[in-house]
Amino acid sequence: MKLLIVDDESLVIEDIVSLIDCRLLNVHTVLTARSVEQAQQLMREHEPDIVLCDIELPHVSGLQLLAWSKEHLPKTEIIMLTCHASFSYAQTALRLGSFDYILKPVEAGKLSDAIQAAQGKLHQREQIGLQCKQGTLWVKHRDEWIEQYWVDLLTGRLGSTVEEWGLAARKRNVVDALKTEL
């Protein structure tokens, strides 16, 4: 997993990096940026999975980076960080699609929990995408796969018992299709 930390204070970046257990969180790349412009460049080049971003940055706000990210890299999850417990910041961050909102100074446990939750969402989205691809593939090749099942059954390649035939049908995911044909 690739992680980008965006904060204008290098000491804050160092502190956040020290709180992240890369091995435990399966983070193989940690990138850092001190401005929105630098963050956008790194995001274009590396497409990080998760971004930890301070809301209050010079010149351009972290909220603007969040909005840009949702348009250009919608799969990236953004966790906003701030020193101010401002309801309007939190409300805007959530409206723009922030995954989470954490107050600084960041606690290791809260940060780790937020990163793991974001990873869970990314994994879930990946699984849904995979299932959609598999469904599309099934629809595209359904008739061929059912036909091949019958050929294999009639030529004895699936075994000689009803149990073996049923097991082969389940493995090939053709059970329901076969029921409608019979």
SSE arrangement:
Elements: E1 2-6, H1 10-19, H2 22-25, E2 29-33, H3 36-46, E3 50-54, H4 62-72, E4 77-82, H5 87-95, E5 100-103, H6 108-154, H7 162-171, H8 175-181
Parallel strand pairs: 1-2, 1-3, 3-4, 4-5
Helix pairs in contact: 3-4
Secondary structure category: alpha/beta
Report the radius of gyration as a whole number of Å. 24 Å
Number of alpha- plus pi-helical segments: 8
Q: pLDDT below 50 for ≥5 consecutive residues: which ranges? A: none
How does the major sheet shape up? 5 strands, parallel
SSE sequence, one letter per element? EHHEHEHEHEHHH
**Strand arrangement across the biggest beta sheet:** 2-1-3-4-5
Secondary structure tally: strands: 5
What is the averaged pLDDT score?
A: 89
Give the DSSP E fraction (strand runs of 2 or more residues). 5-15%
Q: What characteristic shape results from the CA principal axes?
A: elongated
- How much helix is in the residues? 55-70%
Give the N-terminus to C-terminus distance in angstroms.
Answer: 47 Å
